Recover the amino acids of this structure.
């Protein structure tokens, strides 16, 4: 039976087969998932902001520029091989727009861009992403298969 492990905001968790990692309430936040298909282990980080801007970090899981590296470290502790890691991500919506005004701070876009650049920096391929738009998402990441199920209110569900 699959154990569902909840990943909160500004949090990251790892898991082994047959567990599933889940996070809800992805608006401008990004859920980034890493998977080793041979070891059947994975991890998920729910990042809220793109960068620490050089400030000292109380919680590295909160920031895309810190969370990706930390997530890699944690997955390697489960026996994953960095060369086999693959990534998927979802979220990064523009939740707040006002008529006649530019998008406020573009946090969702900036989160997605930072996650992508961190994955490139560590040499981890991003297989697929479901980012942007104006809808919130809940995601379930199956560490056995590497499937990422993305559910949105009024837009249904898909597996990427």
């Amino acid at each position: 039976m699959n154990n569902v492990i909840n990943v909160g905001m500004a949090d990251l968790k790892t898991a082994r087969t047959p567990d599933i990692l889940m996070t809800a309430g992805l608006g401008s936040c990004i859920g980034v998932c890493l998977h080793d298909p041979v070891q059947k282990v994975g991890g998920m980080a729910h990042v809220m902001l793109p960068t620490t801007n050089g400030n000292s970090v109380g919680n590295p899981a909160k920031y895309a520029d810190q969370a990706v590296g930390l997530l890699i470290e944690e997955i390697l502790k489960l026996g994953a091989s960095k060369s086999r890691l693959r990534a998927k991500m979802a979220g990064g919506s523009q939740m707040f727009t006002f008529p006649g005004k530019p998008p406020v701070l573009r946090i969702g876009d900036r989160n997605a861009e930072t996650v992508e650049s961190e994955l490139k920096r560590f040499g981890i391929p991003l297989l697929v992403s479901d980012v942007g738009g104006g809808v919130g998402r809940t995601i379930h990441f199956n560490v056995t298969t590497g499937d990422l199920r993305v559910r949105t209110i009024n837009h249904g569900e898909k597996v990427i």
The helical segments are 64-76, 107-121. The mean pLDDT is 92. DSSP finds two helices and ten strands in the chain. The domain at 4-159 is CATH 3.30.1330.200 (60s Ribosomal Protein L30; Chain: A;).
